[in-house]
Amino acid sequence: MLRGFYTATSGMIAQQRRQEAMSNNIANANTPGYKADQPVVRAFPEMLMYRMGKQHAPIERPVQDPIGSLHTGVYVQENVPNYGQGDVRDTGNSTDLALLNESLPDETGSLFFTVQHADGERRYTRNGNFTVDGNGFLTTQQGYYVLGEAGAPVQTGGMDFDVTEQGVVQADGQATPLGIAYTDNANTLTKEGNGLFRGEAGAIPAGAGYTVRQGALERSNVDATQAMTQMMESYRTFETNQRVLKAYDKSMGKAVSEIARLR
Fold first, then answer.
1. Partner of 252 at 20 to 30 A CA spacing, among 49, 96, 144, 171?
2. How far apart are the C-alpha atoms of 58 and 67, rounded to whole Å?
3. Shared-domain flag, residues 120 and 177
4. CA distances from 181 to 84, 123, 143, 149 (A)
5. Concatenated DSSP letters for 31-67?
6. How far apart are CA 118 and CA 8, in angstroms?
7. 71 Cβ neighbours under 8 A, 6+ residues apart
8. Domain co-membership, 112 together with 167
9. Residues in domain Flagellar basal body rod protein N-terminal (predicted)?
């Protein structure tokens, strides 16, 4: 009976974490470049149950008769981002850039803008909602420098600049290629706040096609309808586990107060 408590409780905790992931997706449905999280629910290892007994003929010896397997609950192992391309909308702002995947050599591969984090390390993002700071550098809305192909911050000199489809920034007679990075397995990246990803990414391989569109943004790839449906499903499953837990609690109460009562 105590094992039933743990099994039902693990189900409630797993559904609570699914709810948190779906709520975060819905909250970021309008965040440019946001990649929806998909919770991965796994089961704990099954236990094979045996009936212990004795065999009396021809000689007495212990025997084990298999009864069947017993599930011991579930847990959310991790949240895996969906790196699928989001819809692109025009904004008309010269500092907004959308990175469009056209042909990638790997199914799990993805392209990213490269930025410099406050700790000096590189981060990667699909959020092209950039701006220009007081020194004329292209930055994210949080103030992180957007890096060029050479690894230095991109200097635009102001809001009046052009970006080609190949990702080359043209300003004040200078051409600076954007530092667009590629990873063949985006699932190896670690998701951080503000639309940033941490990990290893390198140069764009031959055969990878992409387009940079100025004056546009990649929208979040969250499907709000699907996320709401998953939230309702998770809530109902949470309620079911809750009722099971109450039933076990009621049975335990009877076992303590009635069955074990001395007369």
1. 49
2. 24
3. yes
4. 16, 10, 20, 9
5. STT---EEEEEEEPPPEEEEEEEEE-SSS-EEEEEEE
6. 43
7. 7, 43, 44, 46
8. yes
9. 5-35
User: What is the average pLDDT across 111-139?
Assistant: 95
Q: Is the pTM of this model over 0.90?
A: no
Q: How confident is the model at residue 59 (pLDDT cuts 50, 70, 90)?
A: low
Q: Write out pLDDT tens, residues 73-101.
A: 888 988 999 999 999 999 999 999 999 99
| Domain identity same for 24 and 72 | yes
- Pair (93, 212) in one structural domain: yes
Written as one letter, the residue type at 223 is D
What residue numbers bound the domain in which 21 lies? 2-80+225-259
Has residue 47 got a pLDDT over 70? no
**Do 111 and 184 reside in the same domain of the chain?**
yes
Task: Please tell me the distance from the alpha carbon of residue 11 to that of residue 19, in angstroms, as a whole number.
Answer: 12
